[in-house]
Amino acid sequence: MRNAVSEDLGTATAVRLDLWLWAARFYKTRSLAKHAIETGKVDVGGQRAKASRAVRIGDALRIARAEEVFEVEVRGLSDTRGPASVAQSLYAESEASRIAREQARALRIAERTGYRAPETKPDKRARRLIRALGDIDAT
Fold first, then answer.
1. Is the pLDDT of residue 111 over 50?
2. Global confidence as pTM
């Protein structure tokens, strides 16, 4: 395997998609990256791809991870996982994508405001009330 970032050394012209996603730190393991690709969470140029698809500099990727969606352009190639600073140099996220992610995050935070998880487990009386409320639809 090549052990280099292509922008610096100019050796690699293409890298497997699952390997690049792992090296760019979008997923913790290569198998998670492969699973995301197989389940349609990663698009290359607007089309579903296979894990073995070759990624080249300039490719546009759309990566859905949990509730976040990244739209990035490949700026460098690497098949090894390095420090975060190197991983961030492998891609450039579009400004629209970054703003959309921040707005979605702010919306999720706003939806959670006002909700407080209970501090303790419900006691016997509260459990009976919860059970009774659950039986309302059964009648």
1. yes
2. 0.74
